[in-house]
Design brief:
With about 130 residues, the protein is α+β, with helices and mostly antiparallel strands. Helix content is about 25%, strand content about 35%. α2 links the parallel β1 and β2. Bound molecules: zinc ion (ZN).
Length: about 130
Amino acid sequence: MHEYSLAHALLDGLTDHLREHPVAGRITAVHVRKGELLILSEEALAEAWRILTAGTPLAGSALRLEKVPVKVRCGSCGYEGPVKYAGEGWHFAVPILACPRCEGRAEVIEGRELAIIGLSVDEVTG
Ligand SMILES: [Zn+2]
């Protein structure tokens, strides 16, 4: 399952990070940037996270997703920034992956990632 392997990759990365930078306390939430183009079920991801973290120091922590809009770079005119959306004003807007300035081919530079950006930790006292 897609979400399962994503959760696994997050956990792997976080485990490596914590080995080098241990935290004093219980991790209550893991903050993650999720690119707009990365299609996943947040429920399935949370469920995979729950299963994978069971029995680890991350058990009971929540994943908090922060959506990252698409950003492109244009090879023709050098534009770099957000894209236009089709169906704006609708419930669901679809990013158009072309240069909004010259309509040339644009390379996606942001919007496909799933990356950990921070942790919430309950400090242990005493
Ligand atoms: Zn352009």
